[in-house]
Amino acid sequence: MNRIYFLKLASVADSAFRSRPVRDKRNSPAFQRWDDGDTSHKSRQGRKKIAQRFNAGRSVIYRRQVPLGTKEPVHTFTSIVIHCVWATKNRGPYLTSVLHERLWPYLGGIARENGMKMLAIGGVSDHVHLLISIPPKLAVSKAVQLLKGNSSKWIHELFPNLRAFEWQEGYGAFSIGISAVDATIAYIRNQTEHHRTRTFREEFMSMLQRPGFDYDEWMLD
Predict the structure, then answer these.
(1) What pLDDT shows up at residue 67?
(2) How many domains does the chain have?
(3) Domain containing residue 10: CATH number
């Protein structure tokens, strides 16, 4: 079974901070102006705002510093990597290849703006897979809510013909050990080929069976 590991090491703290990820300021803000194929100017009046393209990478280490003067200052290091998957409502084939090109970067931007790091995104017409690294104070359910809610709102605003689009209410979230990160990234990136012979339902049932989830098939509808 995959596990989440927490490591505490003695170190020297400069000041007191709340938990927050080590982030490259060059990647913020996530919401940049979309250039619609015109790269001659980075910003023009009236452009639609969507997320900047994300750069997939390794998991983020989050640290917590304690107040100066503590006898034994401690940093808290966490690596919490989650493989998330959810479908469109009623498995509607809304996620076209054209939408992928806009939606995947936008999901990466939502993650970055909320302290997460997107390691991989993939999927086909009726569902999406994400591999994310999250900070210790962000619940998995909240992370999924932010990703699903904001992306659904954005789709409705930018694509009038997709006003009927909705994500399904449920989702799957599976912790991933560091040794399995590369294999999971490859799996997510190969979704198109993978689903030439397998449905989302079959795939999701297999994902539930590996860690031993007890479920009834009606729960997958």
Answers:
(1) 62
(2) 1
(3) 3.30.70.1290
